[in-house]
Amino acid sequence: MENYSLENGNMVIANPYAVTTAQTDIMGEQQRHESGNALAANSEARAIASVKAQVLMAKQFPRDPAYAMNRILEECKRPTLVEHALYSFPRGKEMVHGPSIRLAEVIARNFGNMTFGYEVLERRLSQGKTISGAGSSIIRAYAWDLETNLLIERQFEVKHWRSTRNGGYPITEDRDIFELEANMASRRIRACILQMIPGDVTDAAVAACKMTASSGIIEMMANPESRSKLVNQMLRIYGKMGVTQDDLEGFLHANVDSWNADHMLRLKEVKTSLDDGNTTLGDHFPRLAVENQNATVDKAQVKRLMEAAKATGMQGAISDELKKMGIAKFADVPANKYDEVMVMIQGFGVPSEEAPAQIEDPAAEPAAEAPQE
């Protein structure tokens, strides 16, 4: 078909977008009400109105890039944000640094005219006690620039399953499923946000966070008293995860007495990476790789944990906490997490020293289970 014509001897180029409006089979509002879909129509109308309002406001009040950048940089001066703003992990012989989930959310909020989040599209219930029969959720994570109408989204499936050292078990409680969905979705949301935000904006925010973190740590490390407190605090934090001082010294290639602000900043970034689930202990400390973490607590340690739990009188709450840690029963507690679990139990108010002297044989199968209410 020719894309031009002659009118009164003049050539006229046809508009390729000048097409007849397509006819649709969509029911009108009145038809939907008459067909018994009034509730669905109402819901749809509210959702459309909400989206239209957001887009309209974004068009009426477009973002000021310079003002948005200043807001982001100002946020990056907050020590409480910087504490969890950056992560790092090894990739080959290099260390990769980047913004954490928290920092990505802060950048998006201050960039303006953006919305992000996730929605559960489908949730399938568990059909058995094996991983193949475990339930699952289909989730959509997204970031939407209302001003440019650019939508970035990720759709993925999450199994309702918690792995342990000796296998795993299905998750069936609504609260546990919700927490799992939110945790897995947050990583995809960050990916969507960072894909949408200009790279130089993200780089500037990361650099500002590093500057804030470094200045605070440099000041603390310059004072012998505050340096000692900071180093000991870091050793305790990693010690609860089974990471020894020797592990940290090997990772940093420096003796603890020579640690400086750069070393402390690296350890903070690694902790954030572990908290966000970007890496595992084995990625940073080969001794703690998965294949070397199969050892569980011995019988004497199981007994001490059970005694401490029984003494609190809050076995049900402790059982819930264990499940959040991916541990089905005391006998499954990894050897390198014994101290962490004991501290958690003691946090319920009764020191382990006050625990009763006698309790059932932990070697017996019933006694090895996590405490139940």
What is shown here, in short?
This protein has 373 residues and is α+β, with helices and mostly antiparallel strands.
Describe the model.
There is one protein chain. 49% of the residues lie in helices and 16% in strands. The chain is an alpha+beta fold. It has a three-stranded antiparallel sheet, covered by helices on one side. Helix 7 crosses helix 10 and helix 12 runs parallel beside helix 14 (338-346). The protein is globular, with a radius of gyration of 28 Å. The relative contact order is 0.09. The model is unreliable at 350-373 (pLDDT under 50).
Main-sheet strand order equals 5-6-7
Give the overall shape: globular
Distance between the termini: 78 Å
Please give the radius of gyration in angstroms: 28 Å
> Which sequence of SSEs, written as H and E, runs from N to C?
EEHHHHEEHEEEEEHHHHHHHHHH
Label the structural class: alpha+beta
Task: Describe the main β-sheet briefly.
Answer: 3 strands, antiparallel
- According to DSSP, the number of beta strands is 9
Strand content: 15-25%
The count of domains is 2
Low-confidence stretches: 350-373
Helix tally?
15
Name the descriptors:
15 helices; three-stranded antiparallel beta sheet; two-stranded antiparallel ribbon; 2 domains; globular; alpha+beta; 9 strands; 373 residues
Could you give the topology of this structure?
Blueprint: E1 4-7, E2 10-13, H1 29-34, H2 38-60, H3 65-75, H4 79-82, E3 86-91, E4 94-99, H5 101-111, E5 114-124, E6 136-145, E7 150-159, E8 161-164, E9 167-170, H6 174-196, H7 199-222, H8 224-239, H9 245-252, H10 261-276, H11 281-284, H12 299-312, H13 315-324, H14 338-346, H15 365-368
Antiparallel strand pairs: 1-2, 3-4, 5-6, 6-7, 8-9
